[in-house]
Amino acid sequence: MKNIIYALVLSITLFSCNSQAPKQFSEGALNDTFINLKDQSVTLKHILETHKGQNIVIDIWASWCGDCIKGMPAVKALQAQFTDVAYVFLSLDKSKAAWKRGIKKYQVKGDHYFMASGKKSDFGNFVNISWIPRYMVVNKAGEIVVFNVIEANDDKLIQALKN
Questions:
Q1: Who contacts 41 (Cβ-Cβ below 8 Å, separation ≥6)?
Q2: Could you read off the pLDDT of 24-72 as tens digits, one per residue?
Q3: Is the pLDDT of residue 22 over 60?
Q4: 33, 62, 70, 103: least surrounded by Cβ within 10 Å?
Q5: In what order do the strands lie in the sheet with 86-91?
Q6: How far is the C-alpha of 94 from the C-alpha of 65, rounded, in Å?
Q7: What distance separates the 2 farthest-apart alpha carbons in the chain?
């Protein structure tokens, strides 16, 4: 019995250590399209190129998400602390109207995009969205340095922005 438990623990440890977060977006994710506030379709690649040479915080959220709204003060504190960072908000709202109302209602400052395809898109599949809010950090060199945190005041996120 001890050998079975030992083998199980060893297997879990080995598999969990090998699952490293990606440093680059996949081609599919880069070519996935989002809707901007002018109702224009843009690719993730275009969004990232707009902020080339900057650190970027990507916030995947929705106006119907209680945890997203509860986390907004931490996002605003982050924005106040790191003013030279680009903040990109990707919405999983159910409609463009709800998305736009949410931006206004919660006074969300940054660049806004609607994920028309939702979680079942190339981008959604790449990041494997299991919970929102979801925060990512892309550094000035265009590398993903924080792949998956669910709080805007997470130490990993703060440290990535300080570097």
A1: 33, 34, 35
A2: 999 999 999 999 999 999 999 999 999 999 999 999 999 999 999 999 9
A3: yes
A4: 70
A5: 41-43, 33-36, 111-114, 86-91, 56-61, 134-138, 144-149
A6: 11
A7: 63
Residue 8 maps to a domain? no
Pairing mode, strands 41-43 and 33-36: antiparallel
Position 4 in a domain: no
Nearest to 115 by CA among 105, 127, 14: 127
In a domain, 37, yes or no: yes
DSSP code per residue over 50-109: HTTTS-EEEEEE-TT-HHHHHHHHHHHHHHHH-TTSEEEEEE--SSHHHHHHHHHHTT--
Query: 3-state DSSP call for residue 125?
Result: helix
**Residue 88 tokens, joined:** 């990109």
- Asked if residue 93 is part of any domain, the answer here is yes
Q: How many domains does the chain have?
A: 1
Which CATH number fits the domain that encloses residue 55? Answer: 3.40.30.10
Decide: 121 and 113 in contact? Cβ < 8 Å: no
Neighbours of 90 (CB within 10 A): 24
For the residues 98-116, what does the mean pLDDT come to?
97
